[in-house]
Structure prediction request, 432 residues.
Amino acid sequence: MAASNLNNTEAPLQKDLDKCVHCGLCLNACPTYRELGVEMDSPRGRIYQMVQITTGQAEMSQTYVDHMDLCLACRACETACPSGVQYGKLIEAARAHIEDNRPRPLPIRLFRWFIFGQLLQTRWMLALAGAGLYLYQLSGLQKFVRSSGILKPFGKLAEIESLSPNAEVPFFFSQIGKTFPAEGSRKYKVAFLAGCIQNVTFSRLNEATVRVLQKNGCEVHIPGAQGCCGALHVHSGRKEDARKLARNNIDAILDGGFDAIISNTGGCGSTLKEYHELLETDEKYHDRALEWVKKMRDVNEFLGSIELNTNMGPMPMTVTYQDSCHLAHGQKVRVGPRKLLAAVPQLNFKEMPMSDLCCGSAGIYNVVQSEMAGQLLKNKMGYVNGTGAEVIVASNPGCMLQLDAGARLHGKGQRVMHVVQVLDEAYAKFKS
Prediction:
C-alpha cells in the first residue's frame, strides 16, 4: 500500500520519532534483538521503519507489519534510552496506524471484533466463558489433554492450551459495586479496579488485594460502573475502543472523592496512567484524564508509600521477584514490591539476574507470537532456577500465567504468587 494513500490519523507523530538519535543503547535491552540479532527487530530499527512509513518513503508492507507485531512492547528500551524516547507510545501508534490501513482477513476481523469489542467489555460474556473454562478443568478434560499430548500434532494450539488460566469460582463479579470497610480507623478512601478477565481467572488475587488494603486502613470501594481498562485494545492497535473504555472508567470513578485509584495489574496500570495521552485530543476528557492520572496507583506503589501494617506472621520461604515490564519500565515502579517483600518475617529474598527482562507474556503476545514467547520463557526460567527460589513473585497476572507455565515446562514446580498474595498470607498468620 502506497504511503501517500495511508490514513495517518493514528500514525506515530514526527516529534516523537525525532527524539531517537539512533545511538543503539536500546539494543541489548530489547528481548527480540537479543534473540535474533536483527536490526529491524530492535527498537532503533523499528523506529527507522516507522519514519519510512510516516514520511512516505516506503510502503506499509507485510514485512513492516511483521516487525511491528514481533515487538513485545515491553518498553525496556525506554529504561535504556538516554534521549527519553517514548517507545511505548510509538509502537502503539504504529499498530493503530496498521489497524487503520491494512484490512485483515474476514475470519480474523470477526475474531478480533468478538474478543476486543464484545468479550472483554461484557461481564456476562466473560462469566459464560469462565464457566466453560471451569467445566473444562473440573471434568478432567484439561488434565487428559495435557497428559496425553493429544494436541501436539496441532502445534500452536498445544502451546496456547498450556498457557490457559484456571477459572477461579466464585468469580469476583459479585463483589463489584460493593464497599469494604477499613480495619481499625479509616486512613484512606480508595477505589479498586477489578479488571476484566481477572474477575474470572484471578478472583482470589482480587479478594486478597481488598483484604490487604483493608488491613492498611483503606476503605475499599469497587465502583459498579467500572469496566475493562483498554490496555489490550491499545496494545493491539484498537485505540478508539480504548478511548471509549477510558471515558467510561473516568466517569465511573473520578468524582468519587478517592485518595487513590488502585490497580493490582502492572500491564493495566501502565495504560491507566496514560489516559491523558490516549485522550490528548479530547477536549471534554483531557483535563479529567489528567486528574485521573494524578490519583492512579499500582497497589505496590501505594502500599510502599504509606506506613505499612507490619502485623504479619512468619513466611519461611525463599522467593525471587520478576519485574512486570509495564510496572518497571512503563510505571517506573521497582522499589515498592521489593520493599513490601522485605517487610515479611522470615521471607528469604533472592534477586534473579535480568529480573526486568520480559518473560514473554506481554498481553496476548504469548498467544499470537508463541514461538518467541516460548523461547523468552525458557530463558527466564533458567534465571529463576538459578536462584533456588521455591516461589516466584510477580505483580502482573499475565506474567503470573506465563511463569506458572514456565514452572511446569522448564522449572521445578515453583509456586507463583502476586506480592499482595504474599502479604495476605502473612497477615493471616499473624497472632496477636
